[in-house]
Amino acid sequence: MTLIVVGLVALCFFLVARVTDPEGSEVDKNKKSGIAEAERTGTLNSSARHEARSSRRSNQANKRPDTVTTESGLTYQVLREGSGQKPGPKDTVKVAYRGWIQGGDVFDQSPEGKPSEFPLNMVIKGWQEGVQLMRVGAKYRFTIPPDLGYGTRGAGSSIPPNATLVFDVELMEVK
């Protein structure tokens, strides 16, 4: 019970500091050191710990010069440009992909040599937005924050709540 309370207090401190000082000055530094201390001493619960780690990794990814972050928070890197058609929101796409939890293990991928087909309006918001940026032949890496992925509910046993997801996606065809 004590660990849960301490974890919630640390998370509240994190959120309050973020709202009261969006510029990231001294309050942001104190918040980060408080979370680091809670992680070091083992007093941060696993969900809050995962969220803190994902936030740090996302901030590091956003500092790369070849990375673009959209208004929604989706981050992408163009690994290879394409020259074909761009899909629309109701199109079905054929893709080769590999997905993993940021800093973790692969949880899904298309079978080797066998692209998968998805209607774009039936996948997570991060995919819907990201794949529409691509042209056939392109390969992108998407970093999808929880609110554009599976959010607070997660997905089964392989994707925990509040997980930041990373996908390498190659767009092969638009139907």
UniProtKB/TrEMBL annotation:
Keywords: Isomerase, Rotamase, Signal
Annotated signal peptide: 1-17
Composition skew (Polar residues), residue ranges: 59-73
EC number(s) recorded for this UniProt protein: 5.2.1.8
InterPro entries (alphabetical): PPIase_dom_sf, PPIase_FKBP_dom
Chain spans, region Disordered: 24-73
SUPFAM superfamilies with a match to the protein in the record: FKBP-like
Catalytically driven reaction(s): [protein]-peptidylproline (omega=180) = [protein]-peptidylproline (omega=0)
Gene3D superfamilies: 3.10.50.40
Keyword Transport: no
GO MF, one example: peptidyl-prolyl cis-trans isomerase activity
Domain PPIase FKBP-type: 90-175
Highest taxon in the source lineage: Bacteria
Protein family (similarity comment): Belongs to the FKBP-type PPIase family.
Protein name (Swiss-Prot/TrEMBL): Peptidyl-prolyl cis-trans isomerase
Organism of this sequence: Oceaniferula spumae
Taxonomic lineage from the root: Bacteria, Pseudomonadati, Verrucomicrobiota, Verrucomicrobiia, Verrucomicrobiales
